[in-house]
Amino acid sequence: MSYVQPAEFAAKMVDAGESKVMMSTKDTLIRAYMAGAILALAAAFAVTVAVNTGSFIIGALLFPVGFCTLYLLGFDLLTGVFTLVPLALFDKRPGVTTSAMLRNWGLVFVGNFAGAMTTAVFMAITFTMGFTTEPNAVGDRLMNIGHSRTIGYAEAGGGGMLTLFVRAVMCNWMVSTGVVAAMMSTSVSGKIMAMWMPILIFFYLGFEHSIVNMFLFPIGILLGADFTWGDYLLYNEIPTVVGNLVGGLTFVGAMLYSTHYKTSPKRVVQAVGTPAE
């Protein structure tokens, strides 16, 4: 059978975290760059489908194709390393230190951002005929998304920022579940099926994903949306990164590590009428 038991994939999670920390700077950046570029293209695809069909659920159903593709190609997202790398630190793997973990996170962030920005520039060109015409309907929709999820949060004050943070936490709860779910199977079809479900949930519910947002908001600015780089960073990207870290590490990484990798001794139940030894 292709199904992998929880204790086995929990060990794979720790091994994966160690492997990512030990990866060279070149490989880390390339893999992060391609992950950001592919996920951004999937976001553009999903929004285009939603605009052209008038149905957001169809776009959400198709968005996971990007996540599955980048995972199967061995590329890395910041949301994934937030969940996996700390486990190798918890397990005291040789060479895995706090500074090494932060280095990995920093390189993946840079790579993801560069990849997403590349796709944002490419798509902005296609939506405006090389910046010679006004944005098409998809471009207009992207600008509206960027405005509502930066200025919209800011105008709501503390409640808006709390909502942003919670959406970011819940996002990486689902996205990191997708990362781990792929380890539950040894077949490509099994991996895809397992990944598809939690990614669909996060996208349809409108949760905040730091790498998707590295595309959605910069392209809005490139197309002329009414918000600034400062608005994007302060009222979305930075709180989203923090929320993604909390969600992936707590709801996924720490929980699976503590119950499937570091299991507690089984309870001993004394049978009725049996004298205690």
From TrEMBL:
Gene3D superfamilies: Glycerol uptake facilitator protein. InterPro entries: Aquaporin-like, For/NO2_transpt. Keywords: Membrane, Transmembrane, Transmembrane helix. It holds the Pfam family Form_Nir_trans. It comes from the Bacteria. One of its GO terms (molecular function) is formate transmembrane transporter activity. Its main location: membrane. GO terms for cellular component: plasma membrane. It is a multi-pass membrane protein. It is found in: Membrane. The chain crosses the membrane at residues 32-51, 57-90, 102-125, 164-184, 196-221, 241-258. PANTHER family: FORMATE TRANSPORTER-RELATED, FORMATE_NITRATE FAMILY TRANSPORTER (EUROFUNG). Belongs to the FNT transporter (TC 1.A.16) family. This is Formate/nitrite transporter. It comes from Poseidonocella sedimentorum.
